[in-house]
Specification:
41% of the residues lie in helices and 22% in strands. By secondary structure, it is α/β, with parallel strands linked by helices.
């Protein structure tokens, strides 16, 4: 069975990533075509990239890098839950992506974002990063507006219709994850 990681991309105190990731998990875990797990970057606690050798060389020196690589290698696809900070994804998410390389390759990703503009600018940057990491990102995104999907900009309460967008994203993500698994196995 396919394994999909839901990566909560912000370790910031007061973050909403955990609430949004839990919403994704609650809906996704009803499916029978994959298993889903949440990875919180707040728990991973990677330092700022501290490997001397580029990740593409696959010569990880630090134990925390080897643990992160082993974690990511176990998954067939990813849903990145990201806020938008200053028109971009959080530095912690970019750092986590940059730490390793081969473990991301030939896998699929979807995005669930939130922010004043729904996090779409952060997702646009992440799509460029996915290309370099050889991750196929699916078209359908789920975007939450702070003004409409959060009570008083703080309590996550998604508007109607987002669950249908997530189902479409999951259909695409599962199809691509399944196809890319055959590429990795070849």
């Amino acid at each position: 069975m396919l394994k999909i990681a839901i990566i909560a991309g912000s370790p910031r105190p007061g973050r909403k990533a955990a609430d949004v990731a839990r919403w994704v998990y609650d809906l996704a875990s009803k499916r029978t075509d994959a298993t889903f797990e949440i990875i919180s970057l707040a728990d991973v606690n990677l330092p700022l990239l501290d490997e001397a050798i580029p990740p593409s060389m696959h010569q990880y020196e630090k134990e925390h890098t080897r643990r992160w690589a082993e974690t990511i290698a176990a998954y067939d696809g990813f849903i990145f839950v990201t806020p938008e900070y200053n028109h971009a994804p959080p530095a912690a998410l970019k750092n986590a992506l940059d730490f390793i390389y081969a473990e991301w390759n030939n896998k699929a990703a979807g995005f669930v974002s939130y922010g004043s503009m729904g996090g779409v600018r952060a997702v646009e940057q992440l799509r460029q990063i996915m290309t370099e990491l050889k991750i196929a990102d699916v078209r359908t995104g789920v975007h939450f507006l702070l003004s409409e999907d959060f009570v008083d900009y703080t309590v996550f309460k998604p508007s109607e219709g987002h669950d249908e967008d997530l189902e479409t994203q999951l259909d695409q993500l599962i199809a691509w994850s399944r196809a890319l698994k055959t590429v990795r196995e070849a």
